[in-house]
């Protein structure tokens, strides 16, 4: 990590004092409140929306349903096509919205709506024997649904040692502190929104597609965002309702989803079931890797979590097979959440590697070092930097792995059993082209505009620092403007691509501005000087396999009587190249590790199959790791600069820390107790 100067967050003070303004907080005059109404059946047809009682309240301005909503056009998933048809594909799908002059009246009106349905049979169980399973052509992020190298079955049959187990992860929900929020206004054919999202340009594009207008007719303002983690990547069903209400009423409309509404009106992660088969020679050389992933999508849209994608790139094997199968359930379309695919897939693969190490009587670190591939196993591409071995070795040193006795269930003090485990981490390098504008003023100050968004990562601060570095001026002379679609095409805060993508555009604009200023002999013209740069043509060719890597080392204690798991220590070492800001990078890595720990021990959305219902749809019952769950947490960044990666020389960091950490915890639990937990989360009844 070369950025010694970890400047503190620009907006830190505003956020903790309440001065930072979030989407819902803009004082827009004459604004109406929108309360979306979700279906109370899991599958069926709306036969009537009786609004008589609701409309009797003079504060209720309108009730919108499929009979009177304006037409929308297909955009990203069918879930956002709200109020377009009477068909109900899942419980909680938006079937109506009440618009009123006060929030209370909108909510009360929603209570008074009488929505009648014809109910149809539904399916809400992820069942490997489901006769209707599909074999998708591709997964999210464009990986092939099935890829085969060599003869996996023959290699498994001939292997000296083989393991064959099934690992599952439950549906999981993003719970950003700030739920989905929007204020929408129409000005003729222009849509103006204050919106909580993971990319104002993507939001403008998404709303534009839905309404059949160009993205530059949608003005999105997103100054501060209280978290996203994947739930705000594209316009959500919930937010689109407000744009519909504004169209119908001709007035500004505001909406903020309740925590419970977030569970069906914003996207979440599918459940996954991975069967992993590994075959090896006695010396630990892998001869076969088979990853068969089952997951679900909704009945209205195909979304295929890339659960097997990490298995494509991790370990050498002449025989490698990755398959994805898809069930169609009456649940909301799942979408990206915190390292999509990598999080559940690496829980499975890294647990299986631990099981193979025990089957071989081999150290799990040595097993991974033995199977380091010369090129990417699934594609044969050379790596654009790897450093997995460096991360594993450095982590083992810092953690004190060498002194470990591999025997499970033998370290006991009082009621506590102690154990340690490790797992690898990986996350692909994504980078998107986009524009940024840099301005020099005669007073010696500089302004840079880019349609970036800071969802809590510290992106604004990292860009501020990148601008100052690129211009060679003190940060105090630089202002960075983000959070507006009007600043031009730009990356999402998604796929851990944001800061590198925006940083690349910003640097290009600053370098060009510097050149232009030099042409003027360093003097700034009276009316200033402005340069807009576009990095669309500067993207790296797909001639290398580029990923960030890491290694997690975990120490747990498990209560032998109750099965309670406490993570005493979680140590990660990461190879992500250059960091724009050391402080916010460190926080991102720690945050990722906490999310992994949380997925390991707490997080699960429980589906009641009889009702097609997410049962635990709030923070009282959807458990997330809190401060009391976190003890020794350490993230280290590996020094290295030799990679051919992004325009800023750094790889993604946002999601890297999440990947593999759940397996490190599960592997430590096995070492402590001798109990192999293959189903997340690792709750007490699964340990005992
Ligand atoms: Mo992240 S799941 O790419 O927002």
TrEMBL record:
InterPro entries named in the record: Ald_Oxase/Xan_DH_a/b, Ald_Oxase/Xan_DH_a/b_sf, Ald_Oxase/xanthine_DH-like, AldOxase/xan_DH_MoCoBD1, AldOxase/xan_DH_MoCoBD2, AldOxase/xan_DH_Mopterin-bd_sf
Region spans: Disordered: 125-147
Protein keywords: Molybdenum, Oxidoreductase
Domain Aldehyde oxidase/xanthine dehydrogenase a/b hammerhead per the UniProt entry, residue ranges: 17-121
Transmembrane segments: none
GO molecular function, one term: iron ion binding
PANTHER family associated with the record: ALDEHYDE OXIDASE 1-RELATED, XANTHINE DEHYDROGENASE
Protein name: Xanthine dehydrogenase YagR molybdenum-binding subunit
Lineage: Bacteria, Bacillati, Actinomycetota, Actinomycetes, Micromonosporales
